[in-house]
Amino acid sequence: MKYKDLYQNSINDKSSFWKEQAALLDWFQFPTNIITETEENIYSWYADGITNMSYLCLDYHIKNGRGDQFALIYDSPVTNTIKKYTYNQLLQEVEAFAGALKNLDIHKGDTVVIYLPMIPEAAIAMLACARIGAIHSVVFGGFAPHELALRIEDALPKAIISASYGIEGAKKIPYKPLVDRAIEESEFKPPYKIYVQREENFDTLNHQDELDFHQISKNATPAKYTPVDSTHPLYILYTSGTTGKPKGIVRDTGGYATALKFSMGAIYDIHAGEVFWAASDVGWVVGHSYIVYGPLLQGCTTILFEGKPIGTPDAGVFWRIIEEHKVKTLFTAPTAIRAIKKEDPEGELYKKYDLSHFNSLFLAGERCDPPTYHWVKELINRPVVDHWWQTESGWPMLGIPMGIEQYPTKAGSAGLPICGFDIQILDEEGLPHEPNKEGIVVVKLPLPPGCLPTLWKNTPRYKKEYLNAFPGYYLTGDGGYKDAEGYTFIMGRIDDVINVSGHRLSTGEMEEIVAGHSAVAECAVVGIADELRGQRPIGFIVVKNGISFENQALENEIIQLVRDQIGAIAFLKNVYIVKRLPKTRSGKILRKTMRAIADGIPFTIPSTIDDPTILDEIKETLNS
Ligand code: COA
Ligand code: AMP
After folding, report:
1. Ligand 1 mean position, distance from CA 514 (Å)
2. Over the stretch 220-249, which tens digit does the pLDDT of each residue have?
3. Within 13 Å of residue 79, how many CA atoms lie on the same side as its CB?
């Protein structure tokens, strides 16, 4: 069946469509309830199905003759290491570590925080948790202790799994001091801390509750998979919202497995035995879905890359890996392509490699701007597919379903709706917009399998943030438009979330941190356009009366504060001291207008503005 019919089918007859997709998995008990509305507008998929994600990703393939095929290739230019794991070997590691977790009295329903760099143990730890029904929560290694502490306090993990260090370019970033600081800050203290020792005796594990990852695995009895309900949470992944408290996105097991399996074939056109590479980080949703679970569910070989698109050692590293490991499909963020383009504008490094296996490039994490799209398309002369999704959805909502029908791509558009997603563009009143008119992007409920069923222990917040704005629809937080052919263009967030180098961050949270400085009376942080990173934050502060300060020193303190609390990835490099912030007469800060001034784009002065002369002051400050 071709895309349009299949898509219509997925919207008009959800139950049959998703029953058929679920049948492609090897369930312990096949579900009879395909979709259930448990509460108004809250749905669960495959409620009476029984499964296990680690079984589906590993044991199932071994049973079907893939034991000696490579499951995972760890390629780390920063340590000069390439290590390959067959399905048999990966299962052995996973079973052993799962056994070790059980020895620590960690079982089905317990939570485990994983704070690891891009090393194989990250995937092993995730699959080991899945194996015993423990719920993992991976925290991106670039987050500072405060962010880790927030997640520990919400997830209440029985253990935290970390490593000696991460590697950023040439520098080692020790993780244990970061974990220690996070635990000190957190009111909840995880009973166990488990470290992957990347070098002998790098960490001093002083206490009984500080354990060596490999040592405890060596001494453990391999653990068999634990059957779990389809609705059992596989993981919690915290993502930035509009406040300082991150949102714990919950992912179920059976719905997610079904959706990922479908996406591997239908969207990425990738099949068992082929090599798939998502050049992201396990700390982000892309890493969960397309470094670990998706490719393994499909019986592929996945690449776990510890490096950067440039500088490790050069802008040819992506092409080297595609050649060396025979990658069919690469998935990365546009910012990585922009970085490569900047270093190697003529694509000289690209030409050095034999890329005959390379089939297509998928981009997500932020909008692929047309100049980047055209540059890379010309360079690789293969399909370049921008596709759109979010931590919440768990898998793509828009894209070109390359495995169903290879529709043409359009520069600047994230493509067509993926099966199961009824995407609409509404105005502020909730009425549908005509084609080509920008509005609020929503998805008609119910969301297909794989999407968040709720927020971790916080269904009221789930309803408030996603369901209440437009009854019957899920609010994506993005703005955009559809053209007459149904291609959708996602133009950016309509809330206080920004994307810096493909990393999702909250300007609302940054404001809370900046406002916490003793000299700050009020502040605003807005995301402005950045040529390499897509967006970056800049801050404006008004200093309290009667405080004496030196401009540069105060600005540096604020920058350091955000770096300490969120991490270097926040990339707040400019803070401006202003006398006043522009506001509406009712006191709302005009962030959108400030952003337009900083970006140098035309804007209309809001009719509700209290004092328009402040806009000139902002302009002068930015120009000075
Ligand atoms: N751990 C610790 N620190 C980290 C980190 C991590 N995992 N990741 C980034 N940082 C730090 C960097 O060291 C840097 O610190 P510095 O200010 O002390 O130099 C800071 O955060 C900013 O890093 P980054 O934004 O990565 O800038 P960069 O100049 O090092 O690299 C890119 C720029 C574009 C090459 C890089 O951001 C990149 O590869 N982006 C793609 C990201 C991606 O794939 N996202 C996918 C999401 S789907
Ligand atoms: P995250 O939850 O980190 O995956 O970030 C999700 C957000 O990134 C989305 O809500 C969008 O704002 C943005 N995003 C991701 N992919 C795209 C894309 N292809 N085009 C436009 N925006 C995107």
Report:
1. 22
2. 999 999 999 999 999 999 999 888 889 999
3. 17
